[in-house]
Amino acid sequence: MTKDQTSAHNTIILEKFAKRVTNAVGRFLDVSTSLLEFSTVTIDF
Amino acid sequence: MDLYIDGNIAQMFSPEGTMRYFVRLLGVDVRSLRPVVSQERPHPFFLTSPAVENVCPSLAINGRPLDYAISRAGTVVPQRMWSSGTPTDTRCQSNVLLNMPIFFVHDDRVTLGLPLLRAVVGGTDCLEATLLGAGDTTPVGNCSSMYIRINVCTFVLQRSYIFVLGLCY
User: Fold this and answer.
1) Which residue of B has its CA nearest to A9?
2) Distance CA B35, CA A22 (A)
3) Residue B25's CB: how many other CB atoms inside 10 A?
4) Residue B36 bridge partners (DSSP)
5) Distances (CA, A) of B32 to B19, B22, B51, B146, B166
6) Cβ within 8 Å, pair B122-A26
7) Backbone region of residue B133 per phi and psi (left: phi > 0; alpha: psi in -120 to 50; beta: other values)
8) Alpha-carbon B121 to chain mean position
9) How far, in Å, CA of B26 to CA of B11, rounded?
10) Chain A contact present for B143, CB below 8 A
11) Strands, DSSP E only, in B31-78?
12) Each residue of B22-58: pLDDT tens digit?
C-alpha cells in the first residue's frame, strides 16, 4: 500500500464519524446492564 | 466564564479532572495560556496565545476551540478519565498523544452535541442535514482506529448529548 492510499484509508468525514459514534453509543446502551460502567468502542477507519 | 467551571469538559470531568485532561493534552496548565471565551453563543473557549505553538507544536489547534460553555440544551453526562487499571496499560496510555476534542456543532452554529435519544433509537439519517461541516474530514489525526471510552449513567439519558474525547492509535 502506498503512502497516499494509507492517507485515504484513514480519512473519515465528520458525518460518517458522527454516525459511527452515535451507533456505537446506541449499541453500548443496548447491552449495558449496570447504571454506571465503562465500555470501549473501537471505530476503525 | 471559567474554562474549569463553565465548560462542558469541566462538567464531565470536574474541574480537577479537566485540569489533568488539559495538562495531558497540552503539556501545561491551560490557564497559563490565558484562554479566552467568545461572547457569542455557543461561547467557545479559544487559545490565542502564540505560546501554545511552542508548548505543543504537534497539536493541530488552528483556531479550534478547547471547549464550549455549557448551555441549557441538555444534561452533561459525568465522566471520568478511562483507565484499564493495569500498570502496563496505564504506562502505555500515558505515552499516547491526545488529539484536540471534537465537538459536533450543528449548522445553526449554536446547537452542540448529538442527542442521545437518537443513539438509543438508532436514527442517524438526519445527521447529514444538520451537522456543520458534515462532509469535512474529521480531525482525528493520522490514525487507523479510535478507541472511545464510554461511561454512561443511564438514569440521565433523556436529554443527554454526546461529545467525543477519544484516544487515537
Assistant:
1) B144
2) 30
3) 20
4) B46
5) 12, 11, 10, 30, 24
6) yes
7) left
8) 24
9) 19
10) yes
11) 36-37, 44-46, 67-68
12) 888 888 888 887 888 999 999 999 887 666 666 666 6
Q: Is B18 exposed, middle or buried (0-12, 13-18, 19+ CB in 10 A)?
A: buried
| Residues 65-84, chain B, touching A (beta carbon < 8 A) | 82
> Structure pTM?
0.75
CB-based contact, B156 to chain A, within 8 Å: no
Q: Nearest Cα to B9, choosing from B163, B169, B166, B167?
A: B163
State whether B122 and A9 contact (CB < 8 Å): no
Q: Mean of the per-residue pLDDT values for chain B?
A: 75
Contacts of B121 in chain A (CB under 8 A): 26
Is B145 within 8 Å of A44 when comparing Cβ atoms? yes
For residue B53, give the 3-state DSSP assignment.
Answer: helix
What ipTM was reported for this prediction?
Answer: 0.74
